[in-house]
Design a protein that fits this description.
By secondary structure, the protein is of the alpha+beta class. The protein contains five helices and four strands. The N and C termini lie far apart (38 Å). The relative contact order is 0.21. The mean pLDDT is 93.
Length: 116
């Protein structure tokens, strides 16, 4: 007998900008994420919670389903930097770090595991 399940698959949490990447934005005026020119559909964690609540309210309707959750629009990190520049009143950059540069910074800050 299988256990009932419902998968919620959110895209990038909007709150990551105010938590995980906050210090880079606050102290370095940059968003340092190795995303290149990719578009991201940021989603607010509260919206994910609302979907989870709907699943719990009517679980039989959602058993065996998977939902990909995303925000209303997709943005590049360069676009996000422009929005933050406007909102914060200072220039926020997106330098498009490579994955290697990103991992080097994490290692230097002690936020990353060592190479395996």
């Amino acid at each position: 007998m299988k256990a009932p399940y419902t998968f919620l698959r959110p895209n990038f949490f909007m709150q990551n900008l105010s938590t995980t990447y906050r210090d880079d934005i606050r102290y370095r005026d940059e968003i340092y994420v190795p995303a290149g020119h990719a578009f991201t559909a940021f989603i607010d964690a509260r919206d994910i919670g609302a979907v989870a609540a709907a699943v719990f309210r009517d679980p039989d309707r959602h058993v065996g389903k998977a939902y990909t959750l995303s925000g209303e629009q997709t943005l590049t990190y360069r676009s996000v930097a422009r929005i933050l520049t406007r909102v914060l009143g200072r220039t926020i950059r997106y330098p498009r770090p490579s994955e290697a540069d990103y991992l080097d910074r994490l290692r230097g800050e002690g936020d990353c595991c060592t190479d395996r």
